[in-house]
Amino acid sequence: MRYADNPAAPVRALPVPILITRPRPMADEFAESCHAAFGDRVHCLVAPLLRVTPLRPGTLPPHRGGIIFTSRSAVAVVREFYPELTGTAFCVGARTAADAEKAGFSAISADADADGLIRLIAKARPTGPLLHLHGRHTRGDIAATLSAQGVATASREIYHQRPLGLSGAARELLGSGRPCLVPLFSPRTAGLFQTAVGPNPPAALRVLALSAAVAEAYGQTIEIAARPNAEAMLELMAETLSETDSS
Predict the structure, then answer these.
(1) Residues facing 130 on adjacent strands
(2) Over the range 70-96, which residues count as b (16 or more CB within 10 Å of their CB) and which as e?
(3) Which of 48, 73, 87, 220 is the most buried (most CB within 10 A)?
(4) Cβ atoms within 10 A of the Cβ of 22, count?
């Protein structure tokens, strides 16, 4: 789809909408990354499908060996409600590790998915018990897996991810028939989005997954980023935008 102010004016492509369903503030940060990477080729619509609500779990179990973070949301809750926590933090990705460093931890990034993080920790063989701080909805059981491998690990919920419906602006976009990119970053969000759009999503919709687990939760064949991080998602989006430009 193209437009011009008058027949003699240069023809410019309309910006491609990007629907960002991550919780805030990560959604806003990713929108800024998209605009920095793609400029006026894209327009970002932030419409979170989850709201993070901190929980107060009381006294935490022993964790001399360190803390495990599998989300940036967990780090944010710790910074606000458990500022006294310090020490080693085993983190699933580089951005989670960067947040943990800002919170006062000595962070180690697996730069991978949960399975990669488990392998990193098992290889490190930390002395003393670990504590996995996470949301109410998780995939797998990191604490049980590590404990079975001889790395004593406890688990504690510190936030809840409350589902939100698609915003009116998001529904209007999806019903417009315009080409639209939807990068999905978590299995929970993928499942919520799949439910929202139904079994027959708009033909112009291009859904992209951060990982195989996200694609599995969406339930349909979609493209997967080469690595489970925001940088790889931007790379996949760049490839997809190039295809859109040439179509």
Answers:
(1) 66, 153
(2) bbbbbbbbbeeebeebeebbbbbbebb
(3) 73
(4) 24
